[in-house]
């Protein structure tokens, strides 16, 4: 699974515009956004789910998600945001390379989270 779609994006084999980047992570727009501004934080190395990410990287992973959320709140003039990580297929994970979804939210945007 080292050559999954996000590995190819991470290596630049598939071009993408990076919204932000840290030593071990980068963020890109979701190709099929559920709301305007929907973006993903992705590790540069392949880890399947959150359980596979070394504990030493979790701080940087979520700090990157925080910085992305701040950026998207400003850019989209959003009033809030959801943070989602789907782990394993049964939970809705389609790309088997862990990623944090950041979904900027506005009143009456029509998006429903059933958690
Ligand atoms: P999951 O269901 O695995 O949590 O979410 C995968 C997400 O990745 C989906 O929201 C989907 O739209 C997005 N996605 C899948 N392939 C690509 C791609 O090649 N480029 C980008 N930017 N997003 C992708
Ligand atoms: Zn991968």
CATH-assigned homologous superfamily:
HIT-like
* Overall mean pLDDT: 96
Q: Strand arrangement, largest sheet? A: 1-2-3-5-4
Biggest pleated-sheet summary: 5 strands, antiparallel
pLDDT < 50 stretches: none
Strand content: 15-25%
Q: Which ligands are bound?
A: guanosine-5'-monophosphate, zinc ion
Classified by CATH, the class is: Alpha Beta
Domain module tally: 1
Query: Mind telling me which CATH architecture this is?
Result: 2-Layer Sandwich
Q: What's the number of extended β-strand segments?
A: 5
Provide the succession of SSEs. HEEEHEE
Write a brief structural summary:
This protein is an alpha+beta fold and 115 residues long.
Describe the structure.
- 23% of the residues lie in helices and 20% in strands.
- By secondary structure, it is of the alpha+beta class.
- It has a single domain (5-105), classed as HIT family, subunit A.
- The chain has a five-stranded antiparallel beta sheet, covered by helices on one side.
- 25% of the residues are buried.
- The chain binds guanosine-5'-monophosphate (5GP) and zinc ion.
- Zinc ion binds next to α1.
């Amino acid at each position: 699974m080292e050559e999954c779609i996000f590995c190819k994006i991470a290596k630049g084999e598939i071009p993408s515009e990076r919204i932000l980047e840290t030593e071990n992570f980068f963020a890109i727009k979701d190709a099929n956004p559920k709301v305007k501004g929907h973006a993903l934080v992705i590790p540069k190395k392949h880890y399947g789910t959150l359980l596979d990410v070394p504990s030493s990287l979790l701080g940087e992973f979520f700090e990157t998600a925080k910085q992305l959320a701040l950026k998207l709140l400003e850019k989209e003039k959003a009033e809030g945001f959801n943070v989602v990580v789907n782990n394993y297929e049964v939970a809705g994970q389609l790309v088997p390379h862990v990623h944090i979804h950041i979904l900027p939210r506005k009143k009456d945007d029509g998006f429903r989270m059933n958690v």
